[in-house]
Write a structure and sequence with these properties.
heterodimer, A: mainly alpha, MetI-like fold, 2 domains, B: alpha+beta, Rossmann fold, OB fold (Dihydrolipoamide Acetyltransferase, E2P), five-stranded antiparallel β-sheet, 19 strands, about 25% helix
Chain lengths: ~300, ~325
């Protein structure tokens, strides 16, 4: 209180001089502008421009002049393929949370201890994440190829007709989600491994003495201890799911019959490739608002930090 | 309550033998302290008793039952860890209650046992707090409470006081001694602090390099150390271990004399010395002196005796309080 009262009495020039003197303001003045400029140039401005373009019927050439108000948003709202894309995106979020993360956690629990064998398995499981998305998509498009792929060989060896999974309206998106789980589970597994390695061995041993079996130690000791890592991993999973794009393009390109679009591939297909930049911008704005909303709510409800 | 018997226990980690063939009996209801320097195998031995570590050979008997290959939870033991090993996401009550919940003990009985443990350990006001909100001493009490509620046959303590400050350590020592008296349980306690060993134990096991140097009551070890190692390890300040030849005992390798068994006189005595450091402790004064013919020597004098660094003094051993050790470091019967 006394300090606050003193600082209120000090003239502004003196307060500035003292702030400069302790280095804090100088550090802010030196370190903040580069980040602020880059953030403004590459995030704020494009976002603002997208918002602006979304009110125009514009093909990207010349200055936008055909102002259409909210028509782009109305078209999106009434477009069944957009509904499908949103549904698919939600499915990816669900699969990420309900299949990918538990799978990553289960594998992390199996191989988190530092042994040479576990190091090999960690590397094997992490390789898909290192692969470029487009490469991963291409590899799996070969796997799922109904004429020459592994699935074709398996089907033939079982005496079945060839399966063209990526051309099947019902199964194509299942294949896409399989590839997404395969591609990204290693990332979450690594987060869990790092967290599990920080659980003190005493806690686990204490649990054994108390009578906890292996799964009870996982449930009562290890998972609660790595809860912050799980929350962060879920955040990455959700935000990542909202942005899925480059695995799908080489795999299905949104097909068959636009059944495997996500919001981003929808934006790309119906906005960019068809030169409907205004329309695509409106999709981008919707995606941005969705991502921000999820991020803010998630931060507010799950990432407050456990003070206890 | 139960007797713990270790028969020919051997423990190897790869090619390294940490415990070579050890046998030990911990009597029913005793407070046995395993003491020794870091790396002597005392914690490994405790972990073998607990079942967290399997012996390479030998057998572990608790209450007459062979538990060598039994799970830790099936041995009727509980363990208090150096780090307390409390679950940070659980409250004090949940921490204490954890083992009972796993054992599917009826809720009413669980509540009663937790309340009783909290009463014994003065934790009633902290049951809803999490470990992060407690002091070191309180956390240690919670860890002990978690042991008590399971009503084990044997309590194991792995250096439980080493994370506490000196004052709290002293207080907790007293509380542990009282707890042993009130529970009348078999307790096995590991420490490298010989003061803890002396004050808590009714049986001390001094270990060195994986072997037992001596087992006995604290004062037996203090009065009649059977090896040079025990002589140097038990007692604070440490026993002076002097070369036999230097004090005219060519027939023995080492002569041990405790600091309190030396008399100091400013004018006359057997060994002239110069005080180098003087520690005034109140009741005692500990003098670290340089005796010309013997090298460094420690003397404990009554607190009222005033001395300053640099002062000359003459030291004389009290007759009948010399400890003689042979070439192998074993005790020789005193003939002086």
């Amino acid at each position: 209180m006394a300090t606050a009262a003193t600082s209120r009495r000090l003239p502004a020039s003196e307060r500035l001089r003292r702030s400069l003197g302790n280095g804090r303001v100088s550090a802010i003045l030196i370190l903040l502008p580069p980040a602020l400029i880059l953030f403004t140039l590459f995030v704020i401005l494009p976002l603002g421009e997208s918002g602006y373009y979304s009110f125009f019927n514009w093909n990207g050439y010349g200055a936008p002049s055909d102002f259409v108000g909210l028509e782009n948003y109305e078209r999106i709202a009434g477009h069944s393929i957009f509904h499908k894309a949103v549904g698919n995106t939600v499915k990816i979020v669900a699969v990420s949370l309900l299949i990918q993360m538990p799978l990553a956690l289960a594998l992390a629990l199996l191989i988190f201890r530092k042994t040479p064998t576990n190091a090999v398995f960690r590397l094997i499981f992490f390789v898909p994440y290192i692969l470029a998305e487009v490469a991963a998509g291409l590899i799996w498009s070969f796997v799922f190829d109904g004429n020459y792929g592994i699935t074709a060989s398996v089907a033939q060896s079982l005496g079945m007709d060839s399966l063209f999974i990526l051309a099947d309206r019902d199964w194509a998106f299942v294949a896409v989600m399989t590839v997404i789980v395969w591609k990204y589970f290693g990332f979450h597994m690594m987060i869990y491994i790092a967290a599990l390695q920080s659980v003190p061995e005493d806690l686990i041993e204490s649990g054994r003495i108390e009578g906890a079996k292996r799964l009870q130690i996982v449930r009562y000791v290890q998972i609660p201890h790595i809860k912050p890592a799980i929350i962060v991993s879920a955040f990455f999973a959700i935000i990542g799911a909202l942005q899925v794009f480059d695995v799908i393009i080489p795999l299905t390109n949104g097909g068959p019959s636009n059944q495997t679009h996500t919001i981003v591939t929808y934006l790309y297909t119906f906005g960019l490739t068809r030169l409907n930049i205004g329309f695509g911008s409106a999709v981008g704005v919707i995606l941005f608002v969705a991502a921000i909303t999820v991020a803010v709510f998630y931060q507010r409800f799950f990432m407050k930090g456990d003070k206890a | 309550m139960a007797e713990v018997r270790l028969n020919n226990i051997t423990k190897k980690f790869g090619a390294v033998t940490v415990i070579p063939d050890m046998s030990l009996t911990v009597p029913d209801g005793s407070f046995t302290v395993l003491v020794g320097p870091s790396g002597c195998g005392k914690s490994t031995l405790l972990r073998i008793i607990s079942g967290l570590e399997m012996p390479s050979d030998g057998e572990v008997m608790i209450g007459g039952e062979d538990v060598t290959f039994a799970e830790p939870s099936d041995r009727g033991i509980s363990m208090v860890f150096q780090s307390y090993a409390l679950y940070p996401h659980m409250t004090v009550a949940q921490n204490i209650d954890f083992g009972l919940r796993l054992a599917k003990t009826p809720a009413a009985e669980r509540e009663a046992r937790v309340a009783e443990a909290a009463r014994i350990l003065a934790l009633e006001d902290y049951l809803d707090r999490k470990p992060g909100q407690l002091s070191g001493g309180q956390r240690q009490r919670v860890a002990i409470g978690r042991s008590i509620v399971r009503q084990p046959k044997v309590f194991l303590f792995d250096e439980p006081l080493s994370n506490l400050d000196a004052a709290l350590r002293g207080q907790m020592r007293v509380e542990l001694a009282q707890l042993h008296q009130s529970l009348d349980a078999t307790m096995i306690y590991v420490t490298h602090d010989q003061v803890e060993a002396m004050t808590l134990a009714d049986q001390i096991v001094v270990m060195n390099r994986g072997r037992i140097e001596q087992v006995g009551a604290p004062m037996d070890l203090y009065d009649r150390p059977m090896t040079e190692f025990v002589a140097g390890f038990i007692g604070s300040p440490k026993m002076n271990l002097l070369p036999g030849a230097a004090i005219g005992r060519g027939d023995v390798k080492t002569v041990g004399i405790r600091p309190e068994h030396l008399r100091a006189d400013p004018e006359t005595g057997d060994w002239p010395a110069t005080a180098k450091v003087v520690e005034t402790l109140g009741a005692d004064t500990v003098v670290y002196a340089d005796a010309e013919t013997l090298g460094e020597i420690t003397v404990r004098l009554p607190g009222k005796m005033r001395l300053s660094a640099g002062e000359r003094l003459f030291l004389s051993p009290e007759p009948g309080n010399l400890h003689l050790f042979d070439e192998d470091g074993h005790r020789m019967e005193q003939t002086a």
